[in-house]
Design goal:
Two copies of one chain form a homodimer.
Chain A (H helix, E strand, L loop, with lengths): L1 E3 L2 H13 L4 E6 L5 H13 L2 E6 L19 H11 L3 E3 L3 H4 L6 E5 H4 L3 H4 L3 H16 L3 E5 L3 H14 L4 E5 L19 H6 L2 H14 L5 H12 L6 E8 L14 E10 L10 E10 L9
Parallel strand pairs in A: 1-4, 2-3, 2-6, 3-4, 6-7
Antiparallel strand pairs in A: 8-9, 9-10
């Protein structure tokens, strides 16, 4: 496994693999790798000859009061996991490599930046679009794999890649969950044991909505109430948002669901009474398919 | 000579040339080709095996009251000139190919967008940065050649390419002039004969400033006054701006020039009394080098 920290070196490597007719896949991460990331590596391996995993905690996608400093950075453990997972190249650039001195260029995906997570994180998605553009230009992959947990990010990247004419295939990989159903996230380690126990309400609320929909409830308001009621079982959970929206445009879903709809939520767990620091913010989502009565799923 | 109108076809062509070990150069244009563009083709030919010239009148870099409709589009003549000049591939995409349905992604180079031309054309450079990003991703060149007449554009593209980690060399080529010194521009054909005659004041004003500097005048205010006085000889010329600035950052030059400084200007020629339409706006510039007394030029 090669560890590369220079953009020029990564580009030279990509050029040489491409000239040799090999396909490259990129798995962009912020490190603190878990089973979710490893499933992205598996997906990348199925689609390419050379798997590049990048580890870069991108400062421009964190707001001023967010957890940039606290974001876990277990570098040696990450490298071991990459080795075990069969990653070919790990790209670990310094911030100065990704943002050269005097940097002032940003990429913006207007309508997809503002809803959902964009409301409480106004600069976040511009930071994501900018860094993903850079990573795609640095690694020159044929395919890039992203987790569906960050659904808005994935929708935004798909849109950006299409708009900017990037010659790269964007692949989404399903959410990987803990034994109790909590979506895997690098931020889960920042939950204290009590909050960790309560965090299971996220997935339970998605399950509840999906069951109600299967039973014929397709009124968006009723489904959202159900989700909120489920989250209310966790006394320390504070809802950031719970929404139903169009999976491509992220516009609000109709009052009565008809086609596919994305149920997306973000919940904050503030520190316990004896602790300090920013809240731990978790997201989860599920793509719902309303099946009108009498219609069979394909 | 190949004429390609699809992004995917151009990308496939670039991939195949790259696999064969050949170097690609891109010359992005808006068509209405003149000697200036042909000098870019020559420069591209010196630096690459395959020269791609793109012709695309990019709507997003025109303001609502500007001359998008009136911009000349002599397609057949352009293709002949490309053939004569030895261009290998002409890329002539439709707007829907460059801006897929639902497009919403833009590229912004913050500090370099606002001064000079950015003041009277507030959205112009975001349009330029966005379309150049797309053209670089569509043509995948090793090198791209731009004219120094659009000096701010060139500075902005150099910055953008560095910031976004594009693996492409950006080359600037010197301004090409008409017999009387007027910088070649696709917009010159929109000047009526009287305005065309008066337009020579642009280059004369640059010459005047350069002579004064050579004679020891390095006060920015005095040089700018000289330029304005020269332009005032043309009764129909309206100054948009006349400025001295840092060639990289485009920040205002110091009150007394010390190092290299860019003298840049934009002048509008409104239609004559019996004509209609938007004014013809011309730009020109010169890189000045102050040489303190007793110091020899290298």
């Amino acid at each position: 496994m090669q560890v590369v920290d220079r953009v020029r070196a990564l580009q030279a490597l990509a050029d040489s693999e491409r000239r040799a007719g090999r396909r490259l896949a990129l798995v962009p991460t912020m490190g603190a790798l878990h089973e979710g990331h490893l499933s992205l590596v598996d997906e990348a391996r199925r689609r390419a000859d050379v798997v590049v995993l990048s580890i870069f905690v991108n400062p421009t996608q964190f707001g001023p009061s967010e957890d940039l400093e606290r974001y876990p950075r277990p570098r040696e453990r990450d490298l071991s996991l990459c080795r075990e997972a069969g990653v070919d190249v790990v790209f670990v650039p310094a911030a100065s490599e990704m943002y050269p001195e005097g940097s002032q260029t940003s990429v913006s995906v207007s309508a997809l930046e503002s809803p959902l997570c964009g409301r409480s994180r106004p600069e976040h998605f511009r930071g994501v679009a900018t860094v993903v553009t850079k990573l795609l230009l640095a690694a020159k992959p044929h395919v890039a794999v992203f987790g569906e947990k960050d659904f808005q990010q994935l929708a935004l990247i798909r849109r950006m890649v299409r708009d900017l004419l990037f010659d790269v295939e964007i692949v989404g990989a399903p959410i990987v969950r803990e034994a109790d159903g909590l979506a895997r996230s690098s931020r889960n380690v920042n939950l204290d044991p009590e909050a960790r126990g309560q965090a299971v309400v996220l997935v339970r609320s998605l399950d509840a909505a999906e069951s109600a929909l299967s039973a014929g409830e397709n009124e968006a308001g009723a489904l959202l109430d159900l989700v909120r009621a489920e989250i209310a079982h966790a006394p320390r959970a504070e809802i950031d948002y719970v929404e139903l929206c169009d999976p491509q445009t992220l516009e609000a879903a109709p009052a009565r669901l008809e086609g596919p709809a994305l149920l997306a939520l973000a919940v904050r767990f503030p520190p316990g009474p004896d602790a300090e620091g920013p809240p731990v913010r978790l997201i989860d989502n599920r793509l719902l398919h309303f099946k009108p009565e009498g219609e069979e799923r394909p």
